[in-house]
Amino acid sequence: MLRKIRISLAALMIICITWLFVDFTGTAHGIVPITWLPKIQLLEAIFALNVAVVLILLVITLIFGRIYCSVVCPLGILQDIFGWFGKRAKKNRYTYSAAKRGLRIVCLLLLVVSGLLGVGTLFQLLAPYSTFGIIATNLLQPIWQAGNNVLAAIAEHYDSYAFYHSNIWMRSLPSLIISIVAIVALAVLAWRNGRTFCNTICPVGTFLSFFAKFSWMKVHFDVEKCKNCSLCTKNCKASCIDFKTHHVDYTRCVTCGDCIESCKFGALKYSPVRHHQNTQNDPDNSRRSFLLSSALLATATMAQQKDKIMDGGLADIKDKVAPDRQTPLTPPGSHSQQNFEQRCTGCQLCISECPNEVLRPSSDLMHLMMPTMSYERGYCRPECTRCSEVCPTGAILPIKREDKSSTQIGHAVWIKKNCVPLTDGVECGNCARHCPVGAIEMVPSDPDDEESPSVPAVNEARCIGCGACENLCPARPFSAIYVEGHEVHKEV
User: What is the DSSP letter of 355?
Assistant: First the structure.
């Protein structure tokens, strides 16, 4: 019964979370229970300063053990799926192995240090939910979109509008490569040895293991019934059961119930254990656990493109190239670049949900895979607040539409040498015509000659940095007007 409940909850969890990442229509985000799933991820809850969720997860761990890793964490569930295929290929494939405590603690410290130093790339590869988000955004969403486009083509054939075409594009080559390497590595490790990532690398698993060791409910042996058949050890995906000594390493046990299911003699039980003998012979473990736990909680809040589809007819239109911005653009609701970088875990949920194709993974080495804004494919429409609605960490705080229209994330800068009226001698005015806040006015290029070509003049005090001017500028490959970001957002 324990195993069936766990599998049912885990299946529901990964289906709903995956739906959040692949859904480009916003349907999933209209279902409140589903939108809460990213917010109950441990690291995300810590970064969002959601004390209630953090305490609930810790209390659950102290009562039931590491069921978070089996039921809540999507990366853990993904490993179980790969491991299930491995067990189908070869039954009873696992063996007991000693805990790699040194490696686990090093990975936990790396997470904390990378957060303090702002090394987002390392942080995101160690954070399990972020790793799953990278895989889902770069690999699973394009597959979902491709299936949708097939249905859209069929519907169009029958004059139906039940489905509409969705653009499939590569947001970032480095991010795509990293997602492929990550899923291949996870698949191989889980296929061969089950929960290797969880119990050797994952810092969240290590953090929870400090509490799971003292959990009230535990899997334990009834020595009188045990026949030393080794089936429990051979079916333990966490490699934490030593049938020879009747020992279960509770710091690695994810309470999956597989061992209880495989035992033919009823020698394993999941029940309260009042007196637990410590067989690890580590008298300083509790002290170290407390110090590391405190360190993670105290510092976790400090953690941390080109394709353009156009209707050009027979003309050969060059793709837009992103300008070299001195200050990166961060979404409205992030308040500042510092707040965004400190709280963002790089889960890429906002990237996968951006309907305007503005957000994409950064190519900056220190912030690789963290979201950044760029306007080659679209602009940040004032009426859209999707990214602020889905962010689970508080890196992008909820913002109302009326507030977004008055939030200045940057300002437009005119580049004279690229402007079409001056380079090609034709009238334009696209930037002024499409500016949603009226911050651009066309003025004579020569103040003394009213008949001279009109060029844009930007009212920086009024501009909100939405990027409509940059996106719709006909100049190629570089726009004649682009948006420079602000480190701290302003109200206009």
Answer: T
